Amino acid sequence: MADAGRRNMHLLIQLRWIAVGGQLITIAVVDRLMEIKLPLAPLLVVPALLAAINLVSLPYLRRRDTVRNIELTSALLVDVIALAWQLYHSGGLGNPFASLFLLQVVIGAILLEPRSSWGIVAATLVALGTLTLQPEPLVLPPRYATDPMALYLAGSLVCFVLIAVLLVAFVTRINRNFREADAALAAARQRAAEEDHIVRMGLLASGAAHELGTPMSSMSVILGDLVRHPAVIEHDDLLADITDMQAELQRCKKIVSGILHSAGEVRGENPSITTVKALLADIVEDWRDRTAGEIRLHDQLDDDVVIVSDAALRQVIGNIVENAVDMAAQDIVIQARRTAAALELEVLDDGPGFSAEMLEDFGRPYASTKATPGGGLGLFLVVNVLRKLGGRVDVANREHQGARVRLTVPLDAFVYEGKTAA
Fold first, then answer.
1. Do 117 and 107 form a contact (C-beta atoms < 8 A)?
2. CB of 181 closer than 8 Å to CB of 189
3. Other C-beta atoms within 10 Å of 47: how many?
4. Is 0.90 surpassed by the pTM of this model?
5. DSSP 140
6. Is there a contact between 363 and 393 (Cβ–Cβ < 8 Å)?
7. Nearest CA-CA partner of 279 in 308, 250, 322, 248
8. Other C-beta atoms within 10 Å of 111: how many?
9. What is the pLDDT of residues 381-419, one digit of tens each?
10. CA distances, 230 to each of 226, 233, 240, 242, 291 (Å)
11. CA 12, 13, 14, 18: dihedral to nearest 10 degrees?
């Protein structure tokens, strides 16, 4: 989102181009058609100078990310001085276009800080005072000299129409700039709040993982003793149950280690190296054992890519698959393809799809169709983790039935020394 001050400076430059064109047209009409002789040399200096300022300002703005209040104030002061010069050489306060100062006062009140706005008011008052100090009078031809008030009223009408049109056009665009800036600021604050929420969740998860370590170690010792107990060895069913408990306990330890790994508390292990295809196959196989439905992987990757196995990436994909498993009727399809330097995954299910509210609130904390405490946090983490990695999530409903979630993950964040698997 471009800086509001920068966009407003562009509007002032556009307004100045309109002023240049309007001044040249007015000079031509008055001097040639109306045959009111004007001092062309001093009058034509102003549009030439304003055009030169615009031509210098445009490349200057391209190199700037922001425009400060003092720069906007200076631009408006240049326009006030230019208008005062034009009026001084074309009748002074007797020129009906003296009301154009009002346009600059209104724009200054909208764009500038209060102190600078009053500075523009003071500048216009000084300009108006200057116009009373022996301005260069207009010599009217006989057809206008007999009734100068009629000419003044006609010019005032043209000036009023010009001010009204320019105010509506430019003030509307200025207000739009401010609304866009406010929306960008609100989005930044929302993102900061979400990131703070993630930090607090991470601290909670890390603390819980530490607390769970001790009881799980005790359970592991107890189960190890039980599996060797003679009374257990004699009962095959009981021995099988304890073996299953040991396997599930090992899985819990793996999950806890993954949480600590994601929190930056790696316990001396070297990062594991895998490939994109192997990672996807492992995730699909893991979920295939935990669902009664069918999960199919459509591998459309041309070349496999060697990556560093990352717990965050695995969790992101796992959260999306879990959501599809919870909502699907029977069939889940995972399509994997590579586009440029990104991995694109589509998870398709045949469930009821997303509601209109869910599509609008997707990725916000606790936005979920599941009637479970903490629902929606998984998708909230997916959106924010991918945003940190430079990726994105797109969601939609399928044409006939079900939901589609598309993950775009930049491979640069995970690729291992740029290597490609054979």
1. no
2. no
3. 20
4. no
5. -
6. yes
7. 308
8. 26
9. 777 777 777 788 888 888 888 888 888 888 777 776 645
10. 9, 5, 14, 13, 36
11. 100
